[in-house]
Design brief:
The protein is built from 3 helices and 2 strands, in the order E-E-H-H-H. The protein is mainly α. It has one domain. It has a two-stranded antiparallel ribbon with strand order 1-2.
């Protein structure tokens, strides 16, 4: 899965999973009509864990190469943002499919912190 680079103060670059690639991967999972709900859920979790693990590996490499803490925190936040956005898109497209939702059927995400904001 191609990544989105985050610049650092050193020559190191932190690769972060791109939102577009996550959305494409999750869309393929949602569109798989032959898969059971349990299989789709397992694949969804695997995909998101892999994206985060790849970002953390890139983050570790960049920190070892001299990247600063601010760049590291920014990259980790961007990764989490992309995961949350892709998961929200998946939920609204494949799980809660209301094409004309009433006010009680609308979904939102409220950020309460906890991953570096």
């Amino acid at each position: 899965m191609p990544n989105e680079p985050v610049s650092t103060l050193s020559s190191a670059v932190i690769e972060v999973a791109s939102r577009e690639d996550l959305a494409r991967a999750l869309g393929a999972i949602g569109a798989d009509e032959d898969a059971s709900d349990a299989d789709r859920n397992r694949r969804l979790v695997e995909t998101l864990k892999t994206a985060r693990a790849q970002t953390l590996q890139s983050l570790e490499t960049a920190l070892d190469a001299g990247a600063g803490g601010f760049a590291a925190a920014s990259a980790l936040c961007l990764c989490q943002d992309h995961i949350i956005q892709a998961l929200f898109d998946y939920a609204t497209r494949w799980i809660s499919r209301a094409t004309n939702p009433t006010s009680s059927e609308r979904l939102s995400v409220a950020a309460v912190g906890g991953y570096g904001r």
